[in-house]
Amino acid sequence: MPDLPDSVWTRPPRTTRGDQPALSRAQIVRAAIELLDTEGAAGLSMRRLGTKLGSGTTSAYWYVTNKDELLELAVDEVLGEIYVPEPGDTGWRIGASILANGMRAALLRHPWVIGQLGARPTVGPNAMRMGDRTVALFTAAGFQGLQISYAGSLLHSHAIGAATTEAAMTAAARRAGSTLAGVAESVLPAIERTAGTYPHVERWLRENGVGGPDPDRLLDDAFTFGLDRLLDGLSHWLTHHPNPPHHPDPAQQPDPVQRPGAAPRPGREQRPDLDQGAA
């Protein structure tokens, strides 16, 4: 079995040597994120980071061994921007909506993160905090076991998928020196020329306006619509597939209904309504 990729979170702490660097890890990570936001992952290097910090690469290498470890720290820092409410603060649907919207917004602020997800273990403190609160949120909703992982994966997939498409569209428009609205307007003539070949598209365009709504608003509305339907589905599933009450302590497990006339189980309080049976 091949080895997993090295991770800053899984390797033993490095042995410190020499004097403490002038810059903290937080300062270095913030500078790396600034570079990543403007240049992308391909534009980040330890040398360029050292130039930006004005201290060479010495301070950075105190905390990480290479660019990949620096990217892990930066990804976890971005995940720290995603707020997940405590279960007691709000209902599970609102909490799940806040999580999904927060993830989409964070990925659109830092689109380079999208390409890093899944490349290495996401087990930094902010990722674990987000995961812990997500488990608590879905547990309070009534999900159990792997259902919690499946429900969380649905939210993540919707947010990551939406952000991936929107980030790509935005980057393409920027490279063309335009905006999403400008790109949409530029392709309208081609759509109008071919609409007659596709009657369903032609009718939809006629009923909804050839230009359609503002692209930014359309993307927001589409994400909200999809998220609401996803949450509707999870809510419907909970209603029609209720789980038994969760009792982590075996001593709290409910006593099974015994056969009429059977002796009570040792260590259990006798229940006259069940144990004495029907006459």
UniProtKB/TrEMBL annotation:
The keyword Nucleotidyltransferase does not apply. Residues 22-82 form the HTH tetR-type domain. Residues 266-279 have a biased composition (Basic and acidic residues). Residues 45-64 bind DNA. Gene3D superfamilies: Homeodomain-like, Tetracycline Repressor, domain 2. It comes from the Bacteria. InterPro entries: Homeodomain-like_sf, HTH-type_TetR-like_transc_reg, HTH_TetR, Repressor_TetR_C, Tet_transcr_reg_TetR-rel_C_sf. It holds the Pfam family TetR_C_1. Keywords: DNA-binding, Transcription, Transcription regulation. Residues 1-22, 238-279 are annotated as: Disordered. The keyword Transcription applies. This is TetR family transcriptional regulator. The lineage of its organism: Bacteria, Bacillati, Actinomycetota, Actinomycetes, Micromonosporales.
